[in-house]
Amino acid sequence: MTSLESTSQSGHKDGQYRTEGLAVVFRDDGFVILPELISLRACDELIETISTAAPGKPGSRSLLGLPAIDRAAVALQQQLITMGLMGEAHRVVQCSLLAKGVDATWSVTPHQDLSIPVSDRVDTPGWSGWSRKENVWFVQPPTSVLEQLIAVRLQLDDHASETGPLEVVPGSHANGRLTSASVSRHAASRVSCIVPRGGVLVMRPLLIHSSSKPRAPMPRRVLHYLYGPPLPAGISWATLRR
To answer: How is domain 22-228 classified at the architecture level of CATH?
Structure first.
């Protein structure tokens, strides 16, 4: 069972999170870093799970359904609800593996996450960019839906500063959906998000973000959980389970 460890924002264990101001920071900056949110034992369990489910792969979009993955999703959500960072109506809709290492030294240019996984293609005004990935439909919903999404990136390995950490532009989520040119203009003000092992980066997917190539030949495995609100009638979340 995934076990959670309570720490303060500064990383000092004191039996409870000092949650004052977290919701305000998340609202204004579009992200917060929460150190050591799960135990190192839980990290080891998750690494073992993904090593079996996606051996040697730099990524996967369909990890929900694996018991350890699902337990972590529930445990993380419970903590974020307690901290005022997520609502009760949200549900986990996807878990992706993002893995860098000796044989996977990829980088990602500045962008916003605009697509969500849905069960079927339903041609509806305001829903565009339909695509099919790993046998699942993805679509770009209206901005009003994108603004409600919450991504939780769980860091499973040490040495985040050396293995291509995520870089974000604080506050850029408040500008809504941006053109490619606007994303490029804002990208100069990126900051690195150094998340310790067992910690999470909670972010709004509309936040401009990127990542560089690793500087050291060490693994960087991140579980990217996506939580979403109920969708409008006629459109439903995909069941991204194995």
So the answer is: Sandwich (2.60)
